[in-house]
Amino acid sequence: MLVPIVALVPLAVAEALLPLTAAVTHLRPLRAAVDRVAALRAEPAAERPAPQLCTGVRLIAPELRWPGTTAPALRGVDLRIPPGTHVAVVGPSGSGKSTLVAALLGFLPADVLARPATAAWAPQDPVLVSTSVRENLRMADPHADDARLAAALAAAGLPGFDLDALATAVSGGEAQRIALARALLAEAGLVLLDEPTAHLDEPTARAVLAGIKEALADRVVVHVTHRPAEAATADVVVEVTGGGVRALSRA
Ligand SMILES: Nc1ncnc2c1ncn2[C@@H]1O[C@H](COP(=O)(O)OP(=O)(O)OP(=O)(O)O)[C@@H](O)[C@H]1O
Ligand SMILES: [Mg+2]
């Protein structure tokens, strides 16, 4: 009775070791990759390539259509944004403002999309990972120290906010400002802000707008807003309505 069981043992051991052999085979490239990431994290910020900030944006799209839909959300889009311009995007709910942002991110196919290599996006409904606020912010820049994270939070209207706080325990307005701080930290040439002040009271929204203006003075900023006061401070106002996009004013 004992013999067959003993005979089976080497087979079982071999099966147990097989995944280990595969793991050992992958160990060397894995270690090389880990070393590369560690080297990148250790690299001082000054030696990293400067972000490409001074580029304009060009978007040409006869139709912008969401996958799985029959009708285009927007038609005849022809947008040119000079470097350093702050654009306010206004228009009724459901008119296609977030669709325009999606096209600028390259999520929807367009005939022409020329824009800075790096784009940061604070979505209308931001998603935070369920770790600390600090970890959520560091997604934009793993090199950022706590002082830099705190400065970004202050610019986004959350001065003194606890970096150790759990991201799942923040309010909707706080989540939006954390997403905004993350977009500020990314040092992107194009910054897309989809209603960043929608959940905020008037004075807080004003402070947040001032923070955005200062932190992003040299970037192309596309800022979707329902607040006329915010649109009034932009260089260009673009209205999305009736299935189309048109510039309302130019500085
Ligand atoms: N992910 C998606 N998939 C399919 N259709 C979408 C998607 N997002 C938006 N749409 C459709 O595109 C059209 C424009 O919506 P969009 O979200 O761009 O409007 P909006 O101007 O941003 O509205 P709001 O002010 O309410 O945010 C709507 O008909 C909407 O149903
Ligand atoms: Mg929207």
UniProtKB/TrEMBL annotation:
UniProt-listed SUPFAM superfamilies: P-loop containing nucleoside triphosphate hydrolases
MF term (GO), any: ATP binding
Keywords: ATP-binding, Nucleotide-binding
Domain called ABC transporter: residue spans: 57-251
Protein name per UniProt: ATP-binding cassette domain-containing protein
Superkingdom of origin organism: Bacteria
InterPro entries, sorted: AAA+_ATPase, ABC_transporter-like_ATP-bd, ABC_transporter-like_CS, P-loop_NTPase, Type_1_exporter
Pfam families: ABC_tran
